[in-house]
Amino acid sequence: MQFSTRYILGFALVLCLISSTLLSITAVSLRGKQETNRQLDKKKSVLMACNISKPEKSELSDAEWIAEEFATFEAQIVNLSTGEVVATGEEADSFDPDLIERIPVETNPAQIVDVPKEVRVFHRKDENGKLDTIVFPIYGKGLWSTMKGFLAVKADLNTIYGITYYSHGETPGLGGEVDNPKWKAHWPNRKIFDADGKVAIKVIKGSAGPQAQDPHSVDGLSGATITSRGVGAMMQYWFSDKGYGPYLKKLQEGKA
Ligand SMILES: Cc1cc2nc3c(=O)[nH]c(=O)nc-3n(C[C@H](O)[C@H](O)[C@H](O)COP(=O)(O)O)c2cc1C
Predict the structure, then answer these.
(1) pLDDT tens for residues 34-70?
(2) Which of 7, 73, 133, 188 could lock onto 3 through a cystine, CB 3.0 to 4.6 A?
(3) Residues 6+ apart with CB under 8 A from 248
(4) pTM for this predicted structure
């Protein structure tokens, strides 16, 4: 049986229309689920920054386990420039960082162009209700991408608990090693500030010494000096007065 050119073109057009309609419907109907998964992934990253991982024996689903662990965290919305806490509780839980006004900033080594007016940090208390850890969102440029993650800091506001990156576009095996647990294991117990209160943590080329003798250095990623430099620069930015400095001051004074 022979089909005319007009029939074949018409058939192809109808097929394209049906496929694109089905694709659009699928994309729209999955949007909610994708957003939920994105939020879950972010929460999991907060837990990972605190070195909390799901026990192998756990019978809970990932979502249930994350919800259970996350209940031990309290979100605070912080005004970056004043360091004041502007919301806690449900208001802080439903905070959407993507909807917050952004403020352009001066040129800086972390290549941060603008910052949100307000950020959400997470407090974790120990079993006696005492502050144990604060998890800070961090971001800055690597070689190819903006790397986004969390740095967890102990209640002394200086000792690092852990680091994690949940979004980056660095090269797998090179800069992409920022999310390798082996590299992240170099961070716990290193110190952010020196004795004068200056941000001293840096990512060096090569290997850092033991944390007792070399508390402010972290091993660089081999073959990824630019990504490593980006990680160091974002630490410098976020823990300076331009970043969390005002909030850290308020915490030290017991006013946050
Ligand atoms: C395909 C390709 C991908 C690369 N990806 C990265 C990367 O993700 N991060 C990075 O810092 N350097 C990356 N580099 C290397 C940089 O171009 C640069 O040479 C390197 O940062 C220098 O670091 P080194 O002194 O540790 O070798 C990549 C190079 C190539 C050819």
Answers:
(1) 888 888 888 999 999 998 988 888 899 989 999 999 8
(2) 7
(3) 83, 157, 239
(4) 0.87
- Pocket lining: 179 vs ligand 1, CB cutoff 6 Å: no
**DSSP code string of 206-226:** S----TTT-TTEEEPPTT-HH
Q: Can you give the residue ranges of every domain in the chain?
A: 1-71, 74-252
Angle at 155 between CA 151 and CA 160, to 5 degrees: 35
CB 49 less than 6 A from any atom of ligand 1: no
Q: How far is the CA of 231 from the centre of ligand 1 (A)?
A: 14
Amino acid making up residue 177: E
> Where does residue 36 rank: exposed (0-12), middle (13-18), buried (19+ CB within 10 A)?
exposed
Q: Are 53 and 47 in contact (CB under 8 A)?
A: yes
45 in Cβ contact with 164 (< 8 Å) = yes
